[in-house]
TrEMBL record:
It is an enzyme of class 3 (hydrolase). Transmembrane segments: none annotated. This is Nucleoside triphosphate pyrophosphohydrolase. Residues 43-116 form the NTP pyrophosphohydrolase MazG-like domain. It catalyses: ATP + H2O = AMP + diphosphate + H(+).
Length: 277
């Protein structure tokens, strides 16, 4: 067990292996029952999960913005989450960080027989993806997963999980043959949502809205689009255009709350005309 005064905790010159051991030692100190950090000691798997998800999203955000100067730090924050979970698991004698790294190393080698084995590398990316899915299916069979949809993580963002569920179902033939059928289904779900809004309660409205979102994800899948990435991009575009509105209103001596929809809508169109994307 590392102690706060150990010299290795302050070794900033070591290679990746040294730095990973250093990070694990820092976490050991933070979780030490006698000398550790009270906040870190209070945490458990469930309380840390939101931070893990947040850090993964911040990595994605840095990449999407091309903020390469931030990416190094964001990846470090995500690595900390792995070490934190592994440390708590070790305390419960479930597994440890070495086991986590050993498992992913073994998985990557087994899933790439065309690199680490004797299979041919003369395959397209699409063919390798098919092979990857076959290997994953065999792994799921080894874990005694009974259904096609077993193993799709419940904790994924809803759009990402919908996409994975649909991909799994499509592999066994449960899929529309083209985008035309998906678009028809979107129209049907939109009508059902309108009917629910006009004549049903909040629970039914929410259900129909969820159905519409689910089919929208399917349309993205048929178009070869990642719905999560598309929505992130739309969020970014909305943010930039709304900031344009705020800036223009500020130049007029106003805040958005002092404006009205007609004025803000005109500024929104101006933002589009000025190429704000």
């Amino acid at each position: 067990m590392a102690k706060p005064e150990d010299p290795m905790l302050f070794d900033e010159a070591g290679d990746a292996g040294v730095q990973m051991r250093r990070l694990a030692a820092i976490m050991d100190c933070l979780r030490d029952p006698e000398t550790g950090c009270p906040w870190d000691l209070e945490q458990d798997f469930a309380s840390i999960v939101p931070y893990t998800i947040e850090e993964a999203h911040e990595v994605a955000d840095a990449i999407e913005r091309g903020a390469w100067d931030e990416l190094e730090s964001e990846l470090g924050d995500l690595a900390l989450q792995v070490v934190f979970h592994a440390r708590m698991a070790a305390e419960k004698e479930l597994f440890d960080l070495a086991g986590v790294l050993r498992a992913i190393n073994a998985k990557m080698i087994s899933r790439h027989p065309h690199v680490f084995g004797d299979e041919s590398r003369d395959k397209s990316a699409a063919e390798q993806t098919v092979d990857w899915e076959k290997i994953k299916a065999a792994e799921r069979a080894g874990r005694a997963e009974r259904g096609v949809l077993d193993g799709v993580a419940l904790g994924l963002p809803a759009l990402s999980r919908a996409l994975k569920l649909q991909n799994r179902a499509a592999r066994v033939g449960f899929d529309w043959p083209s985008t035309a059928e998906v678009v028809d289904k979107i129209a049907e779900e939109a009508r059902e949502l309108t009917e629910a809004r006009d004549s049903l309660g909040a629970e039914e409205i929410a259900e129909e809205y969820g159905d519409l979102l689910f089919v929208m994800v399917n349309l993205g899948r048929h178009l070869g689009l990642d719905p999560e990435a598309c929505l992130r991009a739309a969020n970014g575009k909305f943010t930039r255009r709304f900031r344009y509105i705020e800036d223009e209103l500020k130049a007029r001596g106003k805040a958005p709350a002092e404006s009205d929809l007609a004025e803000m809508d005109a500024l929104w169109n101006a933002a589009k005309a000025h190429g704000v994307k």
